[in-house]
Amino acid sequence: MRRLVLEVTAGPAEGTRLEPESERVTVGSAEGNDLVIDDPTVSRYHLELRRGRFGVVVTDLDSTNGTRHEGARLHEAEVPSGATLTIGDSALRVSDGGRMTLELHEDDELGALVGRTPAMRRLMALVRRAARRDVAVLLVGESGTGKELVARGLHAEGERARGPFVTVDCGALAPSLIASELFGHEKGAFTGAERQHLGAFERANGGTLFLDEIGELPPSLQPMLLGALERRAFRRVGGREEVSVDVRVVGATHRDLRAEVNAGRFRLDLYYRLAVVVLRLPALRERLEDLPLLVERFLREAGHEGPVEDVIGSEQMDAFAAHRWPGNVRELRNAVEATFAMGELVLGEGPLGADAGDAARWLEQGYKDARATVIFDFERRFLEELVERAEGNVSKAARLARMDRTYLIKLLQRHGLK
């Protein structure tokens, strides 16, 4: 892969030249960028640069004064090598540099992570390298790309593997409950606090704390988290004594926290603490060559032991390859399991179809909750019909559905039908 060369051609940092050893390069006025430009018209995190197919991909990070090329303001665009970008009162030329070699994982798997594309093998190599460093890691990627699997990989490959792995979904908790979930509370700290509660930091002591959707953390709680990370100690809600812990924190978000910092919604100092190492997870549409490998993995986990083609043939696989997968690997897993259960392709239509009223209701829920609702409703309707046809006989139901009996029992238990 070729490096990028960055040259500041106008502004306070004029004459600065940088040829970084990284695939993505950030430019801004804050420390922590690959190229720091001390210019008050440049945002803290102004833009990101990476190699594209034909030139350099420029992504403006919701900067205040924007990124321009030949007078046009860019949000995300690919410009030719040698192009000059205007950022505030400064100008930056981006061009080709020398070659650099990227480390790839030697295998198609790392723990629960699966992929043979360069993007995934690169990610797995970075996971193994980061696991050996006991520092905070920030995982960035779209919903469903497998951020929790990466977090578990960091835990399993590191020195804390024998310690606990504790997850907190910051986006799923009411703001009033997050402090208690993270730091715990003392008996009587608030109405309903009938006994002492140990928070996630204490439960993860000696291991890893995974903070999912950290970008949803309310601004009022960000100083508390920052203090806990800096001091490695905190007070329970309603408590007076400090509790010391030894925890590695892995954060995850589908948001770009650099843009949130620019907008004043996320603290810069907290971002520094969380983003010592940043790992970006590719979307499924960026690694479609991994589809056969993933489909086989999900079918085996669902209990199918025969050839993949018995369930998902070439036509179905072509349909998978043509799909955009907005829900990424999580959506693919659901589609494979549903196709396996139904004996026919289930991909956003048929059993999972919807009228306009359903679509409007789902938009109000948000993607993650709406998709979970659809899958849950499909499974329940399918299982109710299946159990009725099989007259309550689980073995007969498994044969009718062409699915593994053990997996069927698990689904029935999940839906309270057994």
Distance between the amino and carboxyl termini: 55 Å
Q: Give the biggest beta sheet.
A: 6 strands, antiparallel
User: Helix count, per DSSP?
Assistant: 14
The backbone outline, from C-alpha atoms, is globular
Spatial strand sequence of the major β-sheet: 2-1-11-10-7-8
Beta-strand segment tally: 20
Radius of gyration: 24 Å
Helix content: 25-40%
**Segments where pLDDT lies below 50 for 5+ residues?**
349-357
Give your account of this protein's structure.
This protein has 418 residues and is α/β, with parallel strands linked by helices. 35% of the residues lie in helices and 21% in strands. The chain contains 14 helices and 20 strands. The protein has helices at residues 118-131, 147-157, 175-183, 200-203, 222-231, 257-262, 268-274, 291-301, 314-322, 328-342, 356-365, 367-389, 394-401, 405-414; strands at residues 2-10, 17-18, 24-28, 35-36, 47-51, 56-60, 67-69, 72-74, 76-79, 83-87, 90-99, 109-110, 113-114, 137-140, 165-169, 208-212, 233-235, 242-244, 248-253, 277-280. A 6-stranded antiparallel sheet has the order 2-1-11-10-7-8, with no helix packed on it. α8 crosses α10 and α11 (356-365) packs across α12 (367-389). The longest helix has 23 residues, at 367-389.
